[in-house]
Amino acid sequence: MKTLESTVFLKDKNKIFTQNPNHCKKIKVYNEKIIKIKGEEYRSWNPFRSKLAAAILKGYNLELKQDSKVLYLGAATGTTVSHVSDIVKDGMVFSVEISPVALKNLIKVCENRQNIIPILADANHPDRYSPIVSQVDFIYQDISQRNQTEIFTNNLKKYLKPGGNGVLMVKARSIDVALKPERVYELVCLKLKEQGLKVLEKIDLKPYEKDHAAIIVANK
After folding, report:
1. pLDDT tens figures, 164-190
2. Are strands 136-141 and 69-73 parallel, antiparallel or unpaired?
3. CATH number of the domain that 139 lies in?
4. Residue 63's pLDDT is what?
5. Sheet of 2-3, strands arranged across
6. Which regions of 29-172 does DSSP assign to beta strands (E)?
7. The total number of structural domains that make up the chain
8. How many angstroms separate the CA atoms of 191 and 189, rounded?
9. Which has the closest alpha carbon to 55: 170, 175, 181, 198?
10. How confident is the model at residue 16 (pLDDT cuts 50, 70, 90)?
11. Which pLDDT value is given to residue 10?
12. Residue 89 domain boundaries
């Protein structure tokens, strides 16, 4: 097993794991596989269930520190959130989700992970959770709406620290079904640059996700 980051690990070139915190021993979030090495537990991170895992396996170098603060937009039931929580074990994950049904499952994940703050809110309105969310080092968004680029940039302007990074998971078919996905990604990158962001990388998520790409940006 080779270390990619402090708590992200690679095995057999197509499997990644995050280290399960001691207080979460033997606790699974979505029936993932748990392995033990030298007394420590590691949870498998399924790229078919998590776009962030897919991006990492496609070459994205996730640069998160153990004390990083993260704003996660589109947290859903907490599959990917839980792995981010493993990585930033001494930090915080502000997890915004608009669906009350999904949030109920996310809250169950939070019962064992106190570095996750579940927030029932619409990411279209970042001002509404400003009493809860502080400035963050990293913003991750996975929201399937036509205006997903605008949602991302509005949240970055309000919450991302200077020099911080963000990842926008683009679902091409949610933006324009008439355009080829690659063209949609190009247009999204142009919009991000127009907003003063530096586009660092664009990663197509095939074969894990069809018509999806991860676009990595930096706040200048």
Report:
1. 999 999 999 899 988 999 999 999 999
2. parallel
3. 3.40.50.150
4. 87
5. 2-3, 8-11, 15-19, 40-45, 34-37
6. 34-37, 40-45, 69-73, 92-97, 116-120, 136-141, 160-171
7. 1
8. 5
9. 170
10. very high
11. 65
12. 46-219
